Amino acid sequence: MEFDHIIIRYGELSTKKRNRKSFVDKMKSHIRWAIKDLKHAKVTSSRDRMYVLLNGEDHLEVIQRIKGVYGIQSLSPALKIGRDIEEVKTAALYYFEQLSKRPETFKITTRRSDKDYPYDTNEMNHLIGGHLLINNDGHLKVDVKNPDFNLRIEIRREAVYLTGEIIEGAGGLPFGSSGKAMLMLSGGIDSPVAGFLSMKRGLEVECIHFYSPPFTSERSKQKVIDLAHKLAEVNGTIKLHIVPFTDIQVLIQKQIPENYTMTSTRRLMLRIADAIREKNEGMAIITGESLGQVASQTLESMFAINEVTNTPILRPLITVDKTEIIAMAREMETLEISNQPFEDCCTVFTPASPKTKPRREKVNYYEGFVDFEPMIEKAVQDTETLRISGEKQDNVDETIEDLF
Amino acid sequence: MIYFDNSATTKPYPEVIESFAKVAGEYFGNPSSLHGLGASAERLLQKARKQIADLLHTTPSEIVFTSGGTEGNNLAIKGAVHAAAKNGNHIITTEMEHASVLETCRSLEQEGFEVTYLPVTKDGSIVLSDLIHAIREDTILVSIMHVNNEIGSIQPIEEIGRYLADFPKIMFHVDHVQGIGKVPLDFNKCHIDLCTMSGHKFHGLKGTGILYVRSHVKLSPLFTGGNQESKFRSGTENVAGIVAMAKALRMTLNKQNQASDVAEIRDYLMSELKKIEGVKINSPESGAPHIVNFSIPGIKSEVFIHALEESGIFASTTSACSSKNKAISETVLAMFHDLSRAESVIRISTSYENNLEEAKAVIQAVIEKMAKLQKVMR
Ligand SMILES: Cc1ncc(COP(=O)(O)O)c(C=O)c1O
Prior knowledge:
Chain A: It is an enzyme of class 2 (transferase). Chain A: This is Probable tRNA sulfurtransferase. Chain A: Its EC number is 2.8.1.4. The complex is a heterodimer. By secondary structure, chain A is of the alpha/beta class. Chain A is 39% helix and 20% strand. In chain A, strands 1, 2, 3, 4, 5, 6, 7, 8 and 9 form a 9-stranded mixed sheet that branches. In chain A, helix 7 (246-255) packs antiparallel against helix 8 (258-279), helix 8 crosses helix 9 and helix 8 crosses helix 14 (373-381). Chain B is globular. Chains A and B meet through helix 6 of A and helix 1, helix 2 and helix 7 of B. The complex binds pyridoxal-5'-phosphate. Residues 68-70, 73, 98, 100, 145, 149, 175, 177-178, 198, 200, 209, 319-321 of chain B line the site of pyridoxal-5'-phosphate.
């Protein structure tokens, strides 16, 4: 016996009537992307659901792949079988044995759209329920009010369908349905998580990274590329803008008093990010800031830094504790990459005692002695844009490919 | 030469040796070094980890590289019980494990842990109800091999895992050294916490191995030091061996997927051996597709192995490690309680490199050598 299809329910989509069709299409294409190498599986949709027809593909593999697609509220594997009652019994037991968690209580809900079927719904519930009880000697009870597992049997003219296990999906909105924003991706633990959360809310994300060789190594850049690669797995591809930042950073070190270098660095990064955003028609900037985590993330710092733009700055992690962020990073498989011990441009130049309460008038005063504008323009101009693929097999390194 | 001793070790694929030589020669940096040479070595290590994780349907952080099956089993068993000693001190394993599990358990008994050794049936398999009865309040580890290295019997790992899933305090370790590439095993479906594999059993190189450690499982390390391998195993990584192993695993699993001849060779060997008078088959019908174990009571294993070698056929007596110091197969003895059968054991183990012609030659040789030796021995 094999599962026939997987039922996909979408959550919040149902409330967004106007854009619904484009949302559904986006989601469908992401589901297709997630399972593209499972050649036989097909994706179809009806009015308020989507289906993956397995055609022999392993249902667990398919579920594993599409569980993470944003916009999906829940999933259920389903069996399609003949109308013979013995076959229904066998299938019910099979479904039961395939459950990821063994329930203690259950009930059966039968629906009959074919009224000629030899058993009515009550008889079906008894027959199938009894069969499950006999085969789970003593370990299982019926509970019609609040069962751990509700096996749904639907009797149609052409076939009988069984479903019931409900697997939670990722939730959120389909990728790209909320517009585009730029993510400041540092290589740390927080920013990739901020990126995932933003994508989950339907944002299309492009990444910006500040690169300062020789103060930061090729490896720290590679680490950011690896992180972008993970983010790209969500929908297949992501843009990564790599900004040459050495000259500006050197100038800041020369011009700005040490305890204000961090504030100034952040302000300049934000100005550059904003220029790149404008060029790429984004509407917001995303950061991984979390209130009070480091000196640059106090309210006073944000007040001083944020002065340089009125573009919305989205901070999905602003109220989230570090331990929770770490747990999310682990879940999203970026923790391991972020944890590699390479310096990024923020850590190398962090002064011994950065101001935790910088003041706007002071930073403006210090920055007033230099014209950063031409340097910002040059940095934007020289920015290298990579298109990072989310293909599982990364063929970036062709030279080493044949070693594997 | 007919090499039919693939359960002892396999011949590395030429492509695997090529990868090893190239990495060892050109990417010799220490993955922990900060410079470019270190970076490229680390990149290879990551890629190998990723490839192996994908092939095994796990995540890269669950893959720990070891020096082989023996270390993997030691790390899994000692590491798990030492980390969980506050939860209890009872271990369950079987009578027919590889020495690297049995001796590890015995050494833990010296430390004060209690061990239950489950008996095996004539099919070389444990009975689930024995396991169920052996479980106690203070059980912290169950260690059961997937495919037995001597006779090829397959343990009901999925059934066991499903049952153990209801006991969150009990870690489930599987010695998959003989199973990998031969008998599929779904780590998730079987609720496995720890799983040992060894590179040289699937055409990789000796001194390389994989221990799967499900995320959140706690292990206390055998080696302490530079905290490599998520602190589970300190020591500069054997990058060349690991890359070579990643390739060997990919090639082996590919061959496994292309419905191959191994099962056919085994069927042939089993049915032909059965026809020979005086031969007793020890492998169960439903065993792994690459191991055929039989006895010729009256002719000592060692004598027959050398006789086969005269015809260029390489087989073995019992498992390679025990065959040097012990003349009888404990496993066969435990299954059949028959001494003459246990001291005349021959194991033939094949791989995707073997073919039916070789199997035919082996049967021919068995018949001839038997006739010759039986004359002498009587
Ligand atoms: C079942 C089993 N476990 C463990 C081992 C030990 O593996 P290694 O030789 O890689 O230490 C072997 C190999 O003989 C084996 O057959």
